[in-house]
Amino acid sequence: MKFNPEKCRIKDERMQPFIDAAEIWDLLHNTVPDRQKVKDIIARSLDKNRLTLAETAMLINATDTDLVEEIKEGARE
User: Fold this and answer.
1) Between helices 35-46 and 53-61, what is the axis angle to 10°?
2) How confident is the model at residue 9 (pLDDT cuts 50, 70, 90)?
3) How far is it, in rounded angstroms, from Cα 39 to Cα 10?
């Protein structure tokens, strides 16, 4: 499997901080979960594909009990 890193706001430079707290905060507070997108993300994760920050934020922000159960079920597999 070839690794293709996600492009983030802070450029990845050797020996420099690379975690952008503002980018993470923005994603966590502004990502609105969509039922079909959450199902697609779960399917991608079950195929052992990496998730983006935005996809992870969408799973974290899911509040619908059925979706949360689907996320948990996917995690158990």
Assistant:
1) 120
2) confident
3) 29
